[in-house]
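User: I'm curious whether this sequence folds into something compact or stays loose and floppy. Could you predict its structure so I can see for myself?
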Amino acid sequence: MEHETETPVTAALPDAPFHTTGTDHVTIWGSNEADTLAFYRDLLGMPLVLRQPNLDDPSQTHLFFDTGDGRILTVFVSDDRSSARGQRPGTGAVHHLCFSVDPDEYADIMAALEAAGKGYNVFDRGIFHSIYTQDNNGLVIELSADKYEIPDDQKAAVLATAQRLREADGAEFAQDRHMEAALEELDIPVTKHDLPDADSGVGV
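Assistant: Here's the prediction. I'll summarize afterward.
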C-alpha cells in the first residue's frame, strides 16, 4: 500500500518534543470484583497488588494487577455491574489486550482455558504466536508467545528490521524468513521456540 513507503518504520526515536519511557498501566472498565478476580488473578495468574477506591468516582473500586513484568493492568469494578458478552467496537474503543506468556507453558495455557470453559483460537502471527480468548466482560484477550528468543532491549530493532525485509520481499506480513533474517542481520542467535502449527488468521 502507498502509505507503507511514505511513512518510515524505524526503531529510532522520532523528532518529538518528548519521548515516553514505557507503558506504566492500562485501565479498563470492568464488571464486578469477583468475576474480575476470577479471570485475571485466578485464571491468568496476575497478582492483585493494590485495591483502592476509584479516585474519580469513589463508589467504584480500582483493582491493580501485575501483568508479570511490573507493568500494571487496572480495572474499575462495581458490585452492581454484571459481566457482559461481546465486544463494543468503535473509534476509541479497545480492540484487545495482549499479554506475554512463556512459550514452554503454551499447552498448559490451552488446557487451563479449556478447563475454565473458555473458548479460544490459536494463530501463527509471523512475528509471534497467539492464543485469543475473552475476559469476563467480552473483551478480547490475546496471550502471545515470541516465536524466537529476542532480547527485550532489541525487540524494536528486530521488528523494524523484519519490516524492512518484508517490504523488500513484497510479502503481506512479516513471516519466519523475515524474522530469522532480521536476527541474523543484528547478530542475534536464531533460537526458535517449539510452538504448535497454526494458521496465520489472515482474512479470518
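Summary: The chain has a mean pLDDT of 90. Residues 155-169 form the longest helix (15 residues).
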